[in-house]
Task: structure prediction
Amino acid sequence: MGRVRRRAWAGAARFCPVWCRQGSRSCPTTSGGPGSPKACVAPETTATSTCSPPTWSGEARAAFVALASAPTVPERTANLYERLARGDEGRLSKQEISARLRKAGPSGFDPLPYLKQMTMPGLWLFGTADDRTPVPESVAILNALKADGHDITIHVFPNAGHGLLDVPPTDPHAAPTLIAWVRGRVHVTAA
Result:
């Protein structure tokens, strides 16, 4: 019987669990039977944590990765974005914040090398009003990975904030979008 693996994301300021195991009998994120691919669905980041995509994303055990409001930029870049978006240095436009991020340059743990190693499909969900995740910068990185042949799906919800999967969510279409995407990748067979 397979066992469910629980791993922390490297570079995270706090523990961010992700569960997955292909071929296991139980998985907190899916209800497929024995031998069915299991999902890797990460929780959203919180105000007290910065989560990056899993460093083990290149392992063959995972069927896919699905993330909501997860930045793909280096950790300190995401931290700077959150401070600027919150208004710690005055009220700045999105364009001014992006310019400040470019000027500061990348800093801290960078998930990009691990994203480049990803061999399974990935889903990223973002909201344009997210004040914790630099959406344009994260989407640009994901689009570059897509151009390099990675199987990445990106959904950006207009006017949605960071809590895409909160109750209530910042966009009611986020959870159904995630569920439909997962269902398209998990194939359940009768036991």
User: Anything to note?
Assistant: Confidence is low (pLDDT under 50) at residues 1-60. The CA atoms of residues 82 and 132 lie 5 Å apart. The first helix runs from residue 75 to 86. The chain has one domain: 5-72+110-183.
